[in-house]
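Sample intake sheet
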Amino acid sequence: MREIKFRVWDNEENNFWGEGRSLSLVSLVSDSVVNDDSTVLEQYTGLKDKNGVEIYENDIVETTYYNDIDDGLGKIGTITFEKGGYCIIFVGDTEKNNLGWIEPDETIVIGNIHENPELLEKQS
């Protein structure tokens, strides 16, 4: 069974709550996080990247699995929940037409949308 965990980004403080500890749904509800616009609730996908890093919603990842050219460079995208599962929306795909499933052995977490938005600049 998949472990259900969350992390919370605080828009006012510009950091994650309780970094390094898991937050249960019970503690989040009791802290009134669920409907608070000053925070962003992000769920753990249940997957770890090829380095053993947990993959959460809104993480920025690089994956070589969907690379059209064998140049060693990976495609970059963000993790989201779409069409019934966690997937990658690749940089530049504003229509969400080219969703990729997460392949943990081919994926590395390189940041998140809150702390590293510059990673989402269009790939050349």
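Comment: The mean pLDDT is 79. Strands lie at 6-10, 15-16, 39-48, 54-56, 59-63, 75-82, 85-90, 99-101, 107-112.
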